[in-house]
Write a structure and sequence with these properties.
A hairpin with a 4-residue loop joins strand 1 and strand 2. The chain has a single domain (2-15, 47-155), classed as Chitinase A, domain 3. 25% of the residues lie in helices and 21% in strands. It is α+β, with helices and mostly antiparallel strands and 157 residues long. It has a four-stranded antiparallel sheet, sandwiched between helices. Strands 1-2 form a two-stranded antiparallel sheet. The protein is globular and about 40 Å long. It has helices at residues 17-21, 76-92, 97-104, 126-134; strands at residues 2-5, 10-13, 48-56, 115-120, 144-146, 149-155.
């Protein structure tokens, strides 16, 4: 199912929880970066989300390297094609989000299945924040472009 968040101008693809989360075990709160008291501090609105993501870097990313790939040379278009293939695997039920993020993400959160923990507004890059807060719990975004690369985001709380 696709929809457009007209207020923010974001095109998001949302999928039912069961088709995205699969049977993957959710990381414990104690293992997540958002579990610390400091990380739980939020802006005045008190609004928070918990999200996981799968990041694919490209050569124009702000840091085109990661532990997974020391020298990223792919184009942004190639990174988007990779995300599209990952999205299809998730939708088909072939793999759970956490499992795929652990194997394929270029973020250090891969060690936690992509779990970024709980965060408030102003803690993430603006396009990422807008997408994460626009999603309903259990829904996944389409590709989200930030300075870090391109992401699939799954809102978990």
């Amino acid at each position: 199912m696709a929809w457009l968040d007209g207020e923010r101008g974001l095109a998001l693809r949302c999928f039912p929880t069961h088709s995205v989360l699969g049977s993957a075990k959710r990381p414990s709160d104690s293992a997540a970066p958002g579990s610390s008291k400091r990380a739980r501090e939020v802006d005045a609105s008190g609004e928070t989300v918990r999200a996981s993501h799968l990041l694919v870097k490209h050569r124009d990313s702000r840091r085109p390297s990661s532990a997974k790939e020391p020298n990223v040379t792919r184009s942004k278009q190639e990174a988007l094609q990779m995300l599209a293939a990952f999205q299809q695997r998730l939708l088909s039920g072939e793999v759970a989000f956490a499992e795929l993020a652990a194997r394929e993400s270029h973020c250090s959160s891969a060690s936690r299945g992509g779990d970024l923990g709980i965060f408030g507004r102003g803690k993430m890059q603006k396009p990422f924040e807008e997408a994460a807060f626009a999603l309903q719990v259990g829904h996944m975004s389409g590709p989200v472009d930030t300075d870090s690369g391109v992401h699939l985001i799954l809102r978990t709380e």
